[in-house]
Amino acid sequence: MGGKIGTVALDVNGAIHGNTIFRNTEGGSAAVPSFQPGNDNDTGMFHGGTNIIGFSTAGIERLEIDASGTVTLANGLSIGRTAVTGTPAATDGNVFSGTYTPTLTNSTGVGSSAASACQYIRVGNVVTVSGQVMIAGDLSLNMKMSLPIASAFTASRQAAGFFYANTAFSPASSGAGGAISADIAGDRFLFLGGDDSSSNLTYIFTTTYQVL
Predict the structure, then answer these.
(1) Whose CA is closest to 183, among 124, 107, 110?
(2) Within 10 Å of residue 71's Cβ, how many Cβ atoms?
């Protein structure tokens, strides 16, 4: 154990053992954390406030654990005891799920349309979406639907799925439905297909797309 070295009051070459409390009353910050690995003085762990622990790299807080045990990441996602909240950015390569109510845009062959809350799950840069929409349309049905997480489609094949009439709600609609692909111009889903009755049908859909 050495004495004072420069501005360092105590320098230990070896292990430190104790049986009570080791406390840093300064607390530190994201820029200068209290506990720093190696000689990296802007990376480590610090006291972020009452009952809060923070972790930083390159002087920026990357993760925080609060008094309730909720973990908040630098990308805005919060992982609680029962749920994950927040909205991931298009560049996040993680696993994320949620719900959203899409915006529908009617083109040809659609008299009216409405969407219920839909669910989605993202794994890496692949997103799977499913839910129900109500459409009054014909066999030339052309409708667009917004994405839960923005992409940047360059080809129609970058989204692929299908929709079909829920016969439990519309028993006479067996066979009604169509295909889902990517709408390049609007960065949306494109629904093509329909039913020759022009009646208001409830369609179940599922589709997968790439976040580019």
Answers:
(1) 107
(2) 13
pTM of the model: 0.61
User: Within 10 A of 197 (CB to CB), how many other CB atoms are there?
Assistant: 16
Residue 88's alpha-carbon distances to 62, 81, 150, 168, in angstroms, are 15, 19, 10, 35
Q: For the chain, 212 residues long, give each residue's pLDDT as a single digit of tens.
A: 445 555 667 777 777 777 777 777 788 898 998 888 888 889 999 998 899 998 899 998 888 888 888 888 776 666 655 455 565 554 455 677 889 999 999 988 898 999 999 999 988 889 999 999 998 888 788 999 999 999 999 999 999 999 988 766 554 555 688 999 999 999 999 999 977 666 788 899 999 999 99
User: Helices marked H in the chain — which ranges?
Assistant: none
